[in-house]
Amino acid sequence: MEKRRDIIKKVTAGSAGLAIGATAFGFNAKSYRNIQGANDKVRMGIIGVNSRGNAMGKTFARTPGAEVAVICDVDVRAISKAIKTITSYDPALPEPRAEKDCRKVCEDKSIDAIYIATPDHWHTPLTI
Predict the structure, then answer these.
(1) Which of 8, 12, 15, 45 qualifies as a cystine partner to 105, CB 3.0-4.6 A?
(2) Is 18 helix (H, G, I), strand (E, B) or coil?
(3) Model confidence pLDDT, tens digit, residues 97-120
(4) DSSP conformation class of 46
(5) Which contacts qualify for 102-105: CB closer than 8 Å, 24 or more apart?
(6) ∠18-22-27 over CA atoms, to 5°?
(7) H or E stretch at 98
(8) Which residue, among 62, 38, 46, 52, has the nearest Cα to 96 in the 3D structure?
(9) Is the pLDDT reported for residue 54 higher than 60?
(10) In the predicted structure, residue 58 carries a pLDDT above the cut 70
(11) Can you tell me the distance from the alpha carbon of 46 to that of 114, in angstroms, rounded to the nearest whole number?
């Protein structure tokens, strides 16, 4: 069984280590507001970008906290047009990955949300 004095020494040493370590890496109370949490950014996948999906891709690119990560369409021309639309809004934005197979977008664990802008008969299979 540990003595109370030993526990107090360990807690004091640990607290001092945290205080010194945080300032050594440049963290202070003001810098915590700049740290993004896991829920502060939504990574989007857009499936079907010929018309409505292209317009919504630009809208998502302008939305703070949203990132268009994947563009998916069976038409390669539509994919390149949508990527051009999204990156033309802000060149500093990361370029979305191009994908032709919608199943790969649905299986991607890094995608938080998917916007489906396909013909109506594809909505149900993609949702399931």
Answers:
(1) 45
(2) helix
(3) 999 999 999 999 999 999 999 888
(4) E
(5) 102/47, 102/72, 102/126, 104/72, 105/45, 105/47, 105/70, 105/72
(6) 150
(7) strand 97-99
(8) 46
(9) yes
(10) yes
(11) 6
